[in-house]
Design goal:
Elements lengths: L2 E6 L3 H12 L4 E7 L2 H11 L3 E5 L9 H12 L4 E6 L4 H8 L6 E5 L6 H12 L4 E2 L1 H9 L12 H11 L4 H8 L3 H14 L7 H15 L1
Parallel strand pairs: 1-2, 1-3, 3-4, 4-5, 5-6
Helix pairs in contact: 2-3, 7-9, 7-10, 8-9
Length: 218
């Protein structure tokens, strides 16, 4: 399945470089590249892509325009997934981006752009309504000390599985990463859903809710 993408970055060289990589990727159909939030919104309205890839820092203040644009897109076009790129590990920006909901949202470091397969997979997942958080951000959250919270009902192994869900990994990918059988992974995930009281939600929505609980409690 090909993912139709609009890409935004104010830096011309970055924009052209990433565009070149994406246009050579069979799984991605890059429909337009733009350099500022206004042009991004216009391109999204014009093309109605499956996903948007945008830098955080864009004109005019070069602070969090990308996050603001992502939130606006998700409100006006909830069917469109958005992946925000950051040059550095900025946990507060990740929380700000995902505070209103994690479905169809992603936060990746710009270094992931060099691995086109990883980026294409993230765009596909986001376009399908999943949440993808950069592994470096997840690792930082796991390592950070926190007060007692809802995740304390989970075992250490269950928290490891939940962290990988937050990275956007499928059950198969989790089993391969942790050297566990698919049935064992499914059992851990079922326990996570039960302990976080997500038994009444269905399918992919439960994974999204679990990720949100993880991010809020980390």
């Amino acid at each position: 399945m090909t993912v139709r993408v609009v890409f935004a970055d104010d830096n011309y060289l970055v924009r052209e470089g990433v565009a070149g990589l994406l246009t050579e990727t069979p799984e991605v159909d890059l429909v337009e590249t733009v350099g500022d939030p206004v042009a991004l919104h216009e391109a999204v309205a014009r093309h109605q892509p499956d996903a948007v890839l945008t830098d955080i820092r864009m004109p005019p203040t070069f602070t969090t325009e990308g996050i603001a644009a992502a939130k606006r897109i998700r409100v006006e076009f909830p069917q469109i997934g958005v992946v925000v790129l950051s040059q550095y590990v900025e946990e507060d920006y990740a929380f700000e981006l995902l505070a209103g909901g994690v479905a169809g949202m992603g936060y990746l470091l710009k270094e992931r752009v060099s691995d086109v397969a990883v980026l294409a997979d993230a765009l596909r997942r986001i376009g399908e309504g999943e949440c993808v958080v950069d592994p470096t951000i997840v690792a930082r959250l796991v390592a950070r000390k926190r007060a007692r919270g809802p995740l304390d009902v989970l075992t250490e192994r269950e928290r490891e599985v939940l962290a990988l869900i937050a990275e956007g990994l499928s059950n198969k990918a989790i089993s391969e990463r942790m050297y566990l059988s698919p049935k064992t992974v499914e059992a851990h995930i079922s326990q996570i859903f039960m302990k976080l009281d997500l038994r009444t939600a269905e399918g992919q929505h439960r994974r999204v809710l679990a990720v949100l609980a993880y991010l809020r409690a980390s």
